[in-house]
Amino acid sequence: MPIDDTARTSLATADPSPESPDPAQLSRRKGWYRYAWGAHAFPTTVTAVFLGPYLTDIAQNAAGGEKHFLHLAGLSIRAESFYPFAVTAAALLQASILPLIGAAADRSGRTRTYLTAAMTLGVTATLLFYTVSGGAYLWGGALFLAASLGYSTANVLANGYLPTLADPDDRDAISSKGWAIGYLGGAVLLAVNLAIYTAHKPLGLSEGHAARVALASAGLWWLVFGTAGIRRLTAGTSRLPATQRPESGTGYRQLGRTLAALARNRNALLFLLAYMSYNEGVQTVISFASTYGNKQLGLGKSVMASAILLVQFVAFGGALWMGRLAARHGTRRTIAGSLLVWIALLVAAYSMTKGAAWQFYVLGCGIGLVLGGTQALSRSLFAQIIPAGQESEYFGLYEVSQNGVAWIGSLTVALAIQFTDSYRTAIISLVAFFALGLLLLARTDLRTAIRTAGNQVPDRL
Q1: Which parts of this chain are annotated as the region Disordered (predicted)?
Q2: Which class in CATH covers the domain with range 1-11+24-264?
Q3: Distance CA 85, CA 70 (A)
Q4: For a designed S-S bond to 168, which of 55, 317, 368, 458 qualifies (C-beta 3.0 to 4.6 A apart)?
Q5: Can you list the alpha helix ranges (DSSP code H) found in 199-235?
């Protein structure tokens, strides 16, 4: 049952450690972890592995084969370009909507209701991927827009709970554990789906049918565990009672006021820009790694699939490990150290020997070690600079900062290949994103950013 604002505030302002005996707080955390376990099936099984190749095949069927064109709204586009265009459209849709939904959830105090609705949208669209076959590329593209909007919206709202789940000194540990559990949940389902996909012939399935089963299974996984998690969460995310929440307008006017307030908090803005830079590097490495392994190193699809699975399992331990490092050495220092590791990994990738699968697996282990921790600690650090009462709204901006620049890394890779005809040059060019992020992070006064937001500064930062 939803709790009232007074009870919610007392939970949020309590100061439990991650091992707190407070049953209500522990229950909320367990719900948050369960949601992460279920939801991470979407970015692993759907977007990282199965949907892109499958939807491209559907588009090629509609176009009449490879290197053929689709005719859509008076435009002729290559069938191979349809999925990247769908990803771009999804990013633009999310950028225009996410902060508005976050603000509405904060004002209403009904974050759980919004989260349930967003998850329902994402789950329904993901389950319906099973119906995409033949040449139904437009139906598949529409489902992808709906599923990605549902997932991103739900992610914003779930992240908004983080400031209420622990005091400032414990948020790194809670965020790291959440990421770790999410990676593990996604990895378990992905392992099952890869096994089914690999053995599709003995199971009496076509390759396309096996892909559709995998896509739909992600929706079912998300539904079962996500629903179990949401039931344990409270109605809203605000750390303030309704009578103390800041007055706000609606729609884009409120978004403009929030952006203006963020701009006045110079150090908070610097951190967001730093995150935008190095996270774009992270996302581009993840999306380009398989292409690099296949085209530059000559490794097969089985190596790519097993390497992706390896990264997921290693990221589980990596997120927990980096959470412990942050508790000992500070969050900013740990994130900075992870960025240096990312740079070292890119240099190593540039120097890898063609055909050496073992080197690619070692690279995957290195990526897994820093992947989850970089994301988890960035999330908990951003939570420190959110003014009370605007949790979901600010995490909407945080999500947009990922999607709004999602094209820059891929464009950098494309231009590097275009002008140098070298995948090695393309992979090493991504060092610039981590270097810029490291520089901006070093120039950010995080303690001032946290104080300016009206929040308590953690003992170790």
Answers
A1: 1-26
A2: mainly alpha
A3: 12
A4: 458
A5: 207-230
